[in-house]
Design goal:
Keywords: Oxidoreductase. Pfam families: Acyl-CoA_dh_2, Acyl-CoA_dh_N. Residues 28-121 form the Acyl-CoA dehydrogenase/oxidase N-terminal domain. The chain is an alpha+beta fold and 417 residues long. The protein has 3 domains: 10-121, Orthogonal Bundle (Butyryl-Coa Dehydrogenase, subunit A, domain 1); 125-230, Beta Barrel (Butyryl-CoA Dehydrogenase, subunit A, domain 2), CATH 2.40.110; 235-396, Butyryl-CoA Dehydrogenase, subunit A, domain 3 (Up-down Bundle), CATH 1.20.140.10. The chain is built from 11 helices and 9 strands. α7 packs parallel to α9. The longest helix is centred in the C-terminal third of the chain and has 34 residues, at 281-314.
Length: 417
């Protein structure tokens, strides 16, 4: 069989050199992805191998020991990684967001964090409250340590703590008790006051290390209690773009696995069109349509990543009006991408089964994981609200919101999202 590989234009040469460092790791990750999901084996070794190879420091400037990757380069790599195992880029979602926040920050701690990233330290996530909490409220609290002027203590419980089980630090949304300010407390996981449970019960994205994080008077250095209002402005667009990469990679993975199944299949149907499935034009059409969907998904992620790069560069212009405009554009473009990819990915990872017979739904083959993973990723930050926001902008020129929260409606019993 002859396989045509993509020949990148000259402008992609830098990316190809960067990607070549990680593709052997991606290939090994892909080999075990189905088994890991079936056995619910967290990809600890795979994530550690990526981090040891410098994956976690992709965005760190070359002068600080990182790769200095652009955001389009980062998201192309995340899409390739998602095609190998869509759980892993989502598990690293909070890490790359915190790296991004440190990139646009100022002060001595910026370089401290760069060194930590280069040394292989990972950051996880704990933002969503558990329990009776009204939307907009924060019940995880940060209090000054009465015995240590240079420290605070964090107490609270969080759900959807994606990637935290792999992390050295947890990016925790909380509220100070002394002044009421909402903050990010970056808490070290290497202490008895932090526990994490792998209790995410979704039918997809099962090995992202999501679940419940509990903080019981956990210590956090004062320098790591960061005013939330200083957070990088394109953060929600960035978080969404990681999920876009997950969706795009899921389509590619479905195409890869089912194309191999069709190629190797020996049984045919009497009312088919050829002496093999691999030569049947109707079966080939199905695979071709899924492949085209993967192409469109990749292009969509790349377009969204360019808008993020535009927003990142806006942080250094010294022009507040232009900076805000660029961040609004990034929010709007990632919202558009989410609306289209949520439908495209779930449809493509379902339609791929049209190229299979009954044996294709075998649990041993586990092809359904691609649909389950895409469907799960698409359920984050419901796209229907994004579609309405996009329409409001188109009709009324409304600026899209860049920060939102989740919680119980006033007077209602709380339930998980």
């Amino acid at each position: 069989m002859t396989t045509l590989t993509h020949t990148p234009p000259a402008t992609d040469a830098e990316y190809e050199l960067l990607a070549a460092r990680f593709r052997p790791l991606f290939a090994r990750i892909a080999e075990g992805s189905s088994r890991r999901e079936q056995e619910h084996e967290l990809p600890r070794e795979e994530i550690r191998a990526l981090i040891d190879a410098g994956f976690g420091a992709l965005r760190v400037p070359v002068s600080a020991g990182g790769s200095g990757a652009s955001l389009p380069q980062l998201f192309r790599l995340l899409t390739e990684l998602a095609a190998a195992d869509s759980n892993i880029p989502q598990a690293l979602r909070a890490h790359f967001a915190f790296v991004e926040d440190r990139l646009v920050s100022t002060g001595a701690q910026r370089e401290v964090w760069f060194k930590r990233f280069v040394d292989g330290e990972i950051v996880g996530n704990s933002w969503t409250e558990v329990g009776t909490v009204t939307i907009g409220d924060v019940i995880t609290k940060v209090s000054p340590d009465p015995d240590d002027a240079g420290a605070f203590r964090v107490s609270g419980t969080k759900y959807y703590s994606t990637g935290s089980i792999f992390a050295d630090w947890i990016d925790t949304f909380a509220q100070r008790t002394d002044n009421g300010v909402k903050v990010i407390a970056v808490v070290s996981t290497h202490q008895p006051g932090v526990t994490h449970s792998d209790d995410w019960d979704g039918f997809g994205q099962q090995t992202t290390g999501s679940g419940t994080s509990t903080f019981d008077q956990a210590r956090v250095d004062a320098v790591n209690v960061i005013d939330f209002d200083t957070r990088f402005k394109y953060q929600t667009a960035f978080y969404q773009a990681v999920l876009l990469a997950v969706l795009a990679g899921s389509i590619t993975a479905a195409e890869r696995d089912v194309a191999r199944e069709v190629r190797n299949r020996t049984r045919i149907f009497s009312h088919g069109n050829a002496s093999s499935f691999a030569a049947d034009p109707q079966i080939l059409q199905v695979i071709g349509e899924v492949s085209a969907a993967a192409y469109a998904a990749d292009a969509t992620v790349e377009r969204a990543a360019r808008s993020l790069q535009f927003a990142y560069e806006g942080a250094f212009l010294g022009d507040e009006v232009e900076d805000e405009r660029r961040n609004d554009v990034a929010e709007l473009e990632t919202a558009k991408a989410q609306v289209i990819l949520s439908a495209l990915a779930t449809r493509a990872t379902s339609d791929v089964f049209n190229a299979l017979a009954a044996s294709g739904v075998s649990t041993a083959k586990n092809f359904d994981r691609h649909w389950r993973n895409a469907r799960t990723a698409a359920n984050h930050n419901p796209w229907v609200f994004k579609a309405r926001i996009i329409g409001d902008h188109s009709v009324n020129g409304a600026v899209p919101p860049r920060v939102w929260s989740i919680g119980a409606a006033p007077g209602a019993a709380p339930a998980k999202a």
